[in-house]
DNA sequence: TTGCACATGTAAAATGTTACATGATTAT
DNA sequence: ATAATCATGTAACATTTTACATGTGCAA
């Protein structure tokens, strides 16, 4: 998979400029796919050249003009084809796990420093969970989803919430383990 | 962070060849950091040139010679310095979440195809969980860890187990949501 | 004799990161 | 005036992925 597909989904949900996409990749979509604005502009250019998306110029008073991108029929076909492909195994990059195993090869002071850092990292994840929960209350207040799109967005958000809760519980386990090391 | 640090941790736990490392990155370390043998050989070369690791030639009867890499004192210092750095936020790449949100933009047949694929993906994760649990019974049978290294390896494994259990529960949620779409 | 495990690499293409670059409006 | 937000890009560099490349020994 590539960034292209995440952009197609985002533009189908809501057409927008590269700048707006970059912000979505910082917020909602960033939950499950990250990208910087530099990447996004480059890929938007390529997708436009390939005819997957098309831009309309939007003149704005008081602000720079922007290009509002929308998905074309060929772009939509690219997405539906991709949806039928196998889901690839996730490429895991869990830096903290590497550090925790690495903690066996540092001194006591280093282990304490890691413990402090894990506590800070835990606070970050607590904030993310709070943000997800607030978003859930705001966007999905009822028990019955409004439509398919809402139902699917909600289940993805529930995945994010479940992930953060799991991480917080594991970080508590890590903190207890670091505190319990021989010294 | 980079692959270098994961390799340093792995070689400190047990010196070995590039080939052996590639296998560890398919198994135990692959739980939290993935790498192919091509990446590993290239990075080993650079780390050797930088003096972080050193190789001894191991002549083997009946098999190709191999180079057993171990971490040098400078390499160990690189690791301890890195352990003191901030843990970077994870770069998330959750392809399935993109597909689930994308399912709002395909037809019923496409949604059913995704459902089938999610079920297959779920079976993969069930197998991973079973492997982790078997590894836990094998490597950590007692209640009290043998030493620091074992305690830290065990808490990382518990993280993998917690992750897989969370994913399985979420995939059930996804399956129920896909089945419940309007049609 | 076919395939698998062991063992190590190179090359090209795609992707991703970091730094640089510009310029307007709005709020403090 | 100063910073933040909106808006779009280029350039250089690093990393990752995919394909190619080679060769031995052992077991079925």
UniProtKB/TrEMBL annotation, chains A, B:
<keyword id="KW-0238">DNA-binding</keyword>
<feature type="domain" description="Transcription regulator PadR C-terminal">
    <location>
        <begin position="92"/>
        <end position="179"/>
    </location>
</feature>
<protein>
    <submittedName>
        <fullName>DNA-binding transcriptional regulator, PadR family</fullName>
    </submittedName>
</protein>
<dbReference type="InterPro" id="IPR005149">
    <property type="entry name" value="Tscrpt_reg_PadR_N"/>
</dbReference>
<dbReference type="Pfam" id="PF10400">
    <property type="entry name" value="Vir_act_alpha_C"/>
</dbReference>
<feature type="domain" description="Transcription regulator PadR N-terminal">
    <location>
        <begin position="7"/>
        <end position="80"/>
    </location>
</feature>
<dbReference type="Pfam" id="PF03551">
    <property type="entry name" value="PadR"/>
</dbReference>
<dbReference type="InterPro" id="IPR036390">
    <property type="entry name" value="WH_DNA-bd_sf"/>
</dbReference>
<dbReference type="GO" id="GO:0003677">
    <property type="term" value="F:DNA binding"/>
</dbReference>
<dbReference type="InterPro" id="IPR018309">
    <property type="entry name" value="Tscrpt_reg_PadR_C"/>
</dbReference>
<dbReference type="InterPro" id="IPR036388">
    <property type="entry name" value="WH-like_DNA-bd_sf"/>
</dbReference>
């Amino acid at each position: 998979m590539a960034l292209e597909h995440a952009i197609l989904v985002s533009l189908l949900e809501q057409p927008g400029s590269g700048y707006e996409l970059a912000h979505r990749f910082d917020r909602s979509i960033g939950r499950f796919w990250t990208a910087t604005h530099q990447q996004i502009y480059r890929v938007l250019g390529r997708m436009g050249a390939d005819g997957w998306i098309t831009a309309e110029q939007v003149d704005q008073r008081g602000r720079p003009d922007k290009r509002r991108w929308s998905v074309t029929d060929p772009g939509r076909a690219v997405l539906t084809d991709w949806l039928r492909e196998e889901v690839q195994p996730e490429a895991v990059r869990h830096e903290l796990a590497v550090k925790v195993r690495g903690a066996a090869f540092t001194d006591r002071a280093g282990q304490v420093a890691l413990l402090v850092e894990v506590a800070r990292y835990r606070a970050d994840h607590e904030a993310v969970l709070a943000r997800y929960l607030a978003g859930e209350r705001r966007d999905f207040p009822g028990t019955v989803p409004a439509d398919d799109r809402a139902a699917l967005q909600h289940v993805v958000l529930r995945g994010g919430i479940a992930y953060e809760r799991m991480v917080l519980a594991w970080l508590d386990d890590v903190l207890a383990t670091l505190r319990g090391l021989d010294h």
